[in-house]
Amino acid sequence: MNKVILNNGVEMPQMGYGVYQVSPAECEHCVSDALKVGYRMIDTAQAYHNEEGVGNAVQKSGIDRKEIFLVSKVWISNYGYEKAKTSIDESLRKLQTDYIDLMLLHQPFCDRYGAYRALEEAYKEGKLRAIGVSNFYPDHFIDIAGNMEIVPAVNQVETHVFNQQTEPQQIMEEFGTHIMSWGPFAEGRNGFFTNPLLAGIGAKYGKSVAQVALRWLIQRGVIIIPKSTHIERMRQNIDIFDFELTAEDMASIATLDTGKSLFFDHHDAETARMFMERR
Predict the structure, then answer these.
(1) In which order are the strands placed within the sheet that holds 131-134?
(2) In sequence order, what are the beta bridge partners of 102?
(3) Is 140:108 a contact under the CB 8 Å cutoff?
(4) Separation of alpha carbons 139 and 167, rounded Å
(5) CB 154 within 8 A of CB 104
């Protein structure tokens, strides 16, 4: 399994298992399957309401805690220094662990500065091994990275073949920050799984569209967390380290970029209103 070194020296798997939209009822089972298949990084969040399932699966796995990299995120209803501080302890309790390997701010709304200060404090106390942000566009990201004491180790943003985040990734790299993808399959939108270009490239290697898209992200240095509730798909998703895309393949896939989100624009007024309603 490939690993990346974060800007504070912490080693992180480049590929993990994401539990977004995995129900609390099935989360423990799915994470257990993912760990059996070989995943060693699990990505959850307070807003997913399944941190308990992740914690249960890790506890019952028999795998040394040091071998598992846990990621979670503070939701905007817990922003502000005091609320974020309390929520970090609550996430630790639900995950049944003394530390979280990477804790992110989930969205660039509400009192993100106070919340980030709570992350910094928890990091200094050893409760968090690394801290970062999620869904921070370049302006939001530069603001946090340039004004807070600790530069984010990771920025998790929508990243897939149709929204490639090339320029934002370059900006993150200026600060030593790693880009992490959510939605690496674009949730199947825009005809993702039947894309003829990806299918044609996959045919050369005996790989699926999904495997080609994941391999493309890996070769760009992107951290990925594909999700599936089916163990066979979990196996397929992790089976991407026995082939390498050529420079020509990489360039061809780069032409699929639309430069736009397939979900929502964080600079749009309606998006801001939507998140305010979720506080």
Answers:
(1) 17-18, 41-43, 69-74, 102-105, 131-134, 154-158, 178-182, 223-224
(2) 71
(3) yes
(4) 12
(5) yes
| Tens-digit pLDDT profile for residues 30-69 | 999 999 999 999 999 999 999 999 999 999 999 999 999 9
Task: Report, in angstroms and rounded to the nearest whole number, the Rg of the chain calculated over CA atoms.
Answer: 18
Containing H/E element for 3?
strand 3-5
* CA gap 182, 184 in Å, rounded: 6
Quick one: DSSP state of residue 128?
A: B
Annotated binding residue 267 = no
Q: Considering only CA atoms, which of 245, 236, 162 is closest in space to residue 226?
A: 236
Assign domain 13-276 to its CATH superfamily. NADP-dependent oxidoreductase domain (3.20.20.100)
Domain boundaries in the chain? 13-276
139 vs 149: CA distance, rounded Å:
17
Cα–Cα dist 87/199, whole Å: 43
Q: How far apart are CA 88 and CA 73, in angstroms?
A: 9
Q: How many CB atoms lie within 10 A of CB 258?
A: 11
CA–CA dist 77, 171 (Å, integer)? 28
Q: What are the tokens at 166?
A: 């090339």
pLDDT in tens, 208-230: 999 999 999 999 999 999 999 99
Q: What pTM, to 2 d.p., does this model score?
A: 0.96
Chain mean position to CA 236: 19
Query: What is the spatial distance between Cα 155 and Cα 222, in angstroms, rounded to a whole number?
Result: 10
Give me the active site residues, please: 48
